[in-house]
Amino acid sequence: MTTLPLESAPPEAVVAASGGRPPGAAQRRWRIPLLIARRLIGAVVSLAAIVLFNFFLFNVLSSNPIRALVRNRHLDAVAQARLRHEFGFDQSKWQQFLDYCDQLFLHHNLGISTYYTRPVWNVVLDRIWPTVLLVGLSTVLSSIIGTWVGIKGAWERGSLFDKVSNGISVTLYSVPEFWLGLVILLFLGGDQVGLGWFPLGGIYDENVNPASVAGWINIAWHLVLPGLTLTLAYLAQYQLVMRSSMLDEMGQDYVQTARAKGLRDLAVRRSHVVPNALLPAVTQILLYFGFVISGALLVETVFSWPGLGLLTEQAVSSADFPLLRGLFLLFTASVIVFNLIADVMLGVLDPRVREL
Amino acid sequence: MTAADQTVAVPPVRGSVVWRRRRAAVKRTWLELWAQPQGKAGVIVLAVMVIDAILAPILIGGQALSIIAATGRPLQAPSLHYPLGTDEYGRSVLSLLALGAQTSLIVGLSAAAIAMVIGTLIGVASGHYGGWLDTILMRFDDWALNIPFLPLVIVLQALLGRGTDKTILVLGITSWPGTARILRAQVLSVKARPFMDRARALGASNMHQMVKHTLPNIMPLVLANTTITIAGAILSESTLAFLGLGSPSLTATSWGTMLDGAFTAGAVSRGAWAYLLAPGLAIAIVVLGFTWCGVALERVLTPRLPGR
Fold this sequence. Notes:
The complex is a heterodimer.
Chain A (H helix, E strand, L loop, with lengths): L4 H4 L2 H7 L7 H37 L3 H5 L7 H10 L6 H14 L13 H36 L4 H15 L2 H13 L23 H38 L2 H8 L4 H23 L1 H14 L5 H10 L3 H29 L7
Helix pairs in contact in A: 3-6, 3-15, 7-8, 7-10, 7-13, 7-15, 8-10, 9-10, 9-13, 10-12, 10-13, 11-12, 12-15, 13-14, 14-15
Chain B lengths: L2 H4 L9 H20 L1 H23 L33 H37 L1 H16 L2 H12 L3 H11 L2 H15 L2 H8 L4 H40 L9 H10 L8 H29 L7
Helix pairs in contact in B: 3-4, 3-12, 4-5, 4-7, 4-8, 4-10, 5-8, 6-7, 7-10, 8-10, 10-11, 10-12, 11-12
């Protein structure tokens, strides 16, 4: 966690210390394009590996995909053979892989969902917006609150505020997200032992038009509990990352310089430490996009929020493997894209990051 | 200070001195762990869980899991006879809770064991040999770290089928990348120490260096990492079970399958609060216990992190 002094020194200083020439303007001009190109190539290789892995999982690892498809239903050998042919499982693995890549890259076809009997891509597109709404709102709320708590906690390290906020974060971290959702649902949604203030699930009531003002209010009403749960689930991550980043920065020499200049405490914090601590924290948060997905997956299941998470749960319970494969590809690819953004952002904005 | 420093003085001849020193280091580590409030709380939680996992099947017996023999009404409120109420089949939630510890513990320990073996092998090989092997392994590690964990385990479990043994396999083969990375860094720092130069100069083979010198020195970190991996595996098991990917057998109960049962039986709208709260609290306490142990152990073994 603690960076070595050598690593945090600007590249010029390192070059100077090793006796070399400081990099020329030309070199400096190429630093960012080179960095972006490097990251892009890395991301493309990762994506290719993901596609290969996806193929391996669903076409090689699952030994008898047809049996999984027809689970619980009796099918004679002829019908099974026909299905096998229809899905292309009777061809060689190599041919299957070529077909898969052809469909994916040239036709943007992720296959047909066996449960919805519609193209996977269309099913996924229908469900994307509820997830974006829920995850987006929770991310904004938890990042603002979590960052603020992290800054305050680190600044007053060891204080009651720091101890309490840290304790809450570690507890929230240990609690399964779906259970947090269940508890909130029980006490705020259920009317048996709870208050019954909010709906038990779904995105809007059947009798309202979602495109009207009343519909928006209804959606907002349904959004409260899943939003609250997800905000709490993400909160710990933001708080802990920001706090740790602040502590790293607070040990740096420039903080002492700022204090020695006679700056007031608040000024040191606002204009010196926080801006420097924010960057690593923000990028690290982008790197945790996989964590964001898993939170959404569980919370949507608990609150029957009709997004991609609930769709994943439905794909699992109905053994809809084409849909599951499409969702998995989408999740993994989005994580790689977010990582790419984080890496490039950090590289462009923070001169301390050297090539590689 | 720690086990790591004790083994610096390993003599070339195998002798009891080494073992005496290692025993002393283990004892000191234990005492330091016990001296920390977090460590103490963690150890107590773990001890209670282990005792429960061993004793519950003997004291309560499989009879409590039978749906046919269940005497209560479905989703009863807590009473004197059923301190935590009943589940949707009329079984006592308290009995289920006590019996569920076993599955969680077995899955956590076994999955962490698999993950630790893979992680240690990759971390040690990568750090020790360096060069192209290191590059390939760490690129692979990076890539594996990038795959979102929950979707990956869901897909694997769905493809392999349900069952406790398969959950162990799925969590074991997916939980190693973080460990491999941490251990590689530690191996590199051990490799730079003078006694490794001496071993090399005396003609020790790579295998000898890794097994006799590197491994004992990274063992404390492996241990600290294991407890944290166990915590993660227990949490993941309950998550998979909640999503309906737990063991299909009604007699293999776990805290995750209990929550799944409570949710699908409509415990929320029917107000069966004890059935909903108890398994989740149990998971949270045990995960917290393992995490505390891991953090306290890490603090004892790497004293350079004050105030974290």
